[in-house]
């Protein structure tokens, strides 16, 4: 019999899979349209939404939770990572280490969760930068792919600069600025807060109540402990896993 986390009830339907795959790219197209129109007051929030949606898609790809074949899943991992100017395979290396050795000294991704919040604020951005080197050391077998994805991110940055100087469009640079901000603050919203807010916390309970509205915003926060226990459940279905599966212990993640 399949395990609860891999049963058909907790896998994406074909329609849900299309939605999850299309979401960040649809938002990216919307951002481009708004940026071209000069509606920056809308374009910038949409750029934030693009980064969040891409992060969730990349995260589900890390855990093979999208129900895709391995070759397609690998491509999605790369492409969604590039959408937030990251190496998807480098992030996967660290994230799987985080799941296997959660909040130990050998968990570089989870390290900020053990720091004081003031340290997360000032050291977090530098920590994110140094994690790229740690990924190469942890998984030298994916070194080529990690370096290739890093080269692609550098190419995108160069293209954004060229777009500005050649065509006068700041769309690429503004998007890079948003992606950089989201990356620099990742130790806060992807590490410190999820591991310090228990599911019974009022904020987490409120997030859980609205998690079905837009999963990239709230599900990873509201059901972080559920994800650690059932990592193969897609983010979009974590609310269902939380309601129907045996509640996981939280002591190892807080």
TrEMBL record:
Protein name per the record: Fatty acid desaturase domain-containing protein
Annotated source species: Hymenobacter taeanensis
Pfam families in the record: FA_desaturase
Alphabetically ordered keywords of this record: Membrane, Transmembrane, Transmembrane helix
Swiss-Prot/TrEMBL GO biological process terms: lipid metabolic process
Domain Fatty acid desaturase: 40-252
InterPro entries: FA_desaturase_dom
Signal peptide residue numbers: none
Membrane-spanning segments: 28-56, 147-167, 173-192
